[in-house]
Amino acid sequence: MSDKTLTQPGGIDYRRRQRLARLAQNLVILGGAIVLALYVLAPVTWLVSSSFQTEAEIVSVPPHWIPEEPTLMNFEAIFSATEEEEITYETRSGQDPASGGFIPSTAKNLLPAMWNSFLVATLVVILNLLVGVPAAYALAKIRFWGRDASVYFILITRVIPDIALVVPFFLVIKNLGMLDTIGSLVLTYLAVTVPFTVFILVQYFEGLPDELDKAARVDGCSRFQALVRVFLPLSLPSLVAVVLFTFLTSWNEFLLALMFTQTEASQTLPIVLAAFTSDFTISFSFINAAGVLAIVPPVIVAVIFERYIVSGLTAGAVKG
Amino acid sequence: MARIRFEHVEKKYANGFHAVKDLNLDIQDREFLVLLGPSGCGKSTTLNMIAGLEEVSDGNLLFDDELVNYTPPHKRDVAMVFQSYALYPHKTVFDNIAFGLQMRKAPRAEIETRVRDAARKLEIEHLLDRRPSQLSGGQRQRLALARALICDRPLLLIDDGLSAVDVATEHEVFQGLQQRLSGKTVVIVSNRIKLLSMTDRILIFEEGKIAYSGRHEELLQHSGLYRSMYDKQMRHNTNGEPAS
Amino acid sequence: MFGYEERSAALFLAPVMAVLMGVAVFPILYSLYLSFFRIKLTRPNRTPFVWFDNYTDLFSNELFWVSVARTVAFSVVSVTAIAVIALLVSLLLNQNFRGRRVLSTILLVPWAIPYVANALMWKWIYDSGYGALNGVLYQLDFIDKYMIWLGDQDKTIFLIANAFVWKEVPLAAILLLVSLKAIPSDLYQAARVDGASVWQRFIHVTLPAMKPGFMLVMIYETMMAIRHFDLFFILTEGGPGDASHVLSWHIYVETFRNLSFGSGAAMSYVLALVTFALSYTFIRTLGRKV
Question: Would the CB atoms of A318 and B89 count as touching at under 8 Å?
């Protein structure tokens, strides 16, 4: 018995206690993990489930958690709604035989809006890199008078809420005749995302050894060449993190797009989506399908690049 | 030709720290010079100023009678070995050595021959396809040297880049190098005793100024500080422990 | 002072500075300028200079103060919830267990989706006729008939806060996790040797070590809550009545529905100053974090 239980003179069985404690701990972790997963996934799952339901099913009380007659009709409507069809009484009920809800003609704006969102986001990412990388290099590696002030300045521009910028922005863009253009979005998004980009890159660059930069310059590189040939190849995780954050921020942005866009020439996905939600005549299932479509690209991007998020924020061990 | 002259050179940092004060120094062509001193005394700063990595705040720095205050490092003909070696982690050993020649736009064939030649002389030819992280400490040191020597620049600076390995290896490396260094001006920051006896001149820095200057034997005689340093190191050496 | 280090730095920084000056600094100054005029886009040719009238009108406008109160309420509720939930989540993620990677990936979903989609999703959940909230509560017998959630003045702020918190928690949790991971394990070992229980270790080692990171995250979330707009636009449009009439909504309405750009500019400017002052004091108390 003496090798089975570790007992102290007081009679406390530490081994068993430890085992119980560990069991309790594992249960708590398991419970916590399940709760968290539900908290995060349940709302989204409901959205997805709704998007596969017909109008008839979706208005049932109590709700059908899993569609009994799943349909792709809603998604079809989005992808095929490019025809300039007049919504008449006949065609309207023909589109959704179950009930009076119908699919709006503005559905055809959804895909072009997605394209606009994609275009804007891509341009903003590229510009962010072009503008942000040299700035971050200078702030991280060049010791110059005004360095700290520059850092503060760049960060401070982000303190002001977008809504406060909207009034002057709107007038300026209007006077420049740039209302309803992709350009207005690209420019403003750039200003809004670049501070964070610089912040991420500076943190990362500072983790790279100074002497690498010096060695490159002694070897014959100008500062710019040192940046491109030595620092950039070593900063891949951080660059990916920048691409990720910038892309997502641009894709998800709403307020500025609301201000500057008026027609499908420049409207981005959030705008079109918002228009649907305020239209009471649109079928719920259709809106939900549109919502799912809006969620899919950013989630895919985020999941693919997930591992770069943390590694992109700290330089880790870069040996020279 | 690589003659370096400091005329009333000052170095002040933005935070007010006065690293180098009224430095006047004439380094002859092909001189082998060592800078010594406690940390923060200005010796590394001086070395960096020669390389162009630190800007001269005041005074004149001349290479062969030409003012180089405003010449950036990549336009000065200087080679340097850093304390941490600063090897490019993302490049192979071959590319590390070749980098300087590549920046000069040398033809590929020439780069190939010269890199292999340099690697062979430093006994790292078998490692050309590896990355620096796969090398041992001694091999890294030799790589850093190969990189510094490949372009055959008239001026070589070494910032304490020899103290990371044990005395025996360092001595070996140094013996091997003596030939190759004979045509260059070499300025080293180090306090390894073996080197000191091989040098032309030794400068001891103190708080931004040169406190003592002379040959090894002279300093042994005239400087108490130098002698005590020497004794301490010699004691360590005979005990077989690495010199500090 | 302006040697070649400064010159090269200037070259590298020029693009960023140009963009920020043009698109961030200039608008603020322009906004200040505009706030001294009475500008109504319905009468574009009459823009009298009115000194500080826009500002005084602002402070005597009851709805303005209501919006401030609503914003404070929303921010307090949201940030508190985020603090608690994100802390728990980060503690969970700090443990080593199978499936942890999967869980962190799942956690990315709320963070990645656009706020508009988030709003749409919750609007559907809160829907009075067919929404999931009604459905669940009804099936579980917590309520005996379907309720109009978003039409209830007392509940609106909490419902919107819930949607906001749901989306913000992942990022906050991950940031807190980073600061959790930075705590050296020696501290825990020492506490254990000293006889501290799990709870005591948490109170005396974990919490104090997390404090700077925690403060940073809370400040960030507060800033986000104060300026948030999207959910208010989609879910309630400031209603019902003025139950969710927050400051950002107020500025929007004044500027783009009442088309009164002068007073909109004045409000924006006040908001900008306040947030600036807040962040300045916060950054100062935190010390240099950059």
Answer: yes
Q: Which residues of B touch C5 (CB under 8 A)?
A: 55
Assess contact for A292 and A47: CB atoms under 8 A.
yes
Chain B contact for C5 (CB, 8 A cutoff): yes
Token pair 């990315």: residue: C108
Would you list the DSSP string of A194-244? HHHHHHHHHHHHHTS-HHHHHHHHHTT--HHHHIIIIIHHHTHHHHHHHHH
Query: Is A188 in contact with A260 (CB distance < 8 Å)?
Result: yes
Residue A236 in domain:
yes
Q: Which two tokens stand for residue B63?
A: 């290479």
Counting the structural domains of chain C, the total is 1
Of B82, B89, B103, the CB nearest to A214: B82
- Express each pLDDT in B179-220 by its tens digit: 777 788 888 887 666 667 778 888 888 888 888 888 877 877
* Predicted local distance difference test score (pLDDT) of residue B151: 86
In a mutational test of the C interface, the residue from A38, A143, A163, A203 whose CB has the highest number of chain C CBs within 10 Å is A163
CA A155 to chain centre: 21
* C25 within a domain of the structure (yes/no): no
For residue C4, the chain B residues in CB contact (below 8 A) are 55, 70, 72
**E strand or H helix at B67:** strand B66-67
- Which domain does A30 fall in, by range? 1-51
The model's pTM is 0.84
Q: Let me know: does C109 contact A44? Beta carbons within 8 Å.
A: yes
- Other beta carbons within 10 angstroms of residue A87's beta carbon come to 15
Chain C hits for A32, CB-CB cut-off 8 Å, are 88, 92
- Identify which has the larger pLDDT, B40 or A216: A216
A315, A140 contact by CB (below 8 A)? no
Please compute the mean of the pLDDT values over residues A213-218 and round it to a whole number.
Answer: 92
Does residue A226 share a domain with residue A120? yes
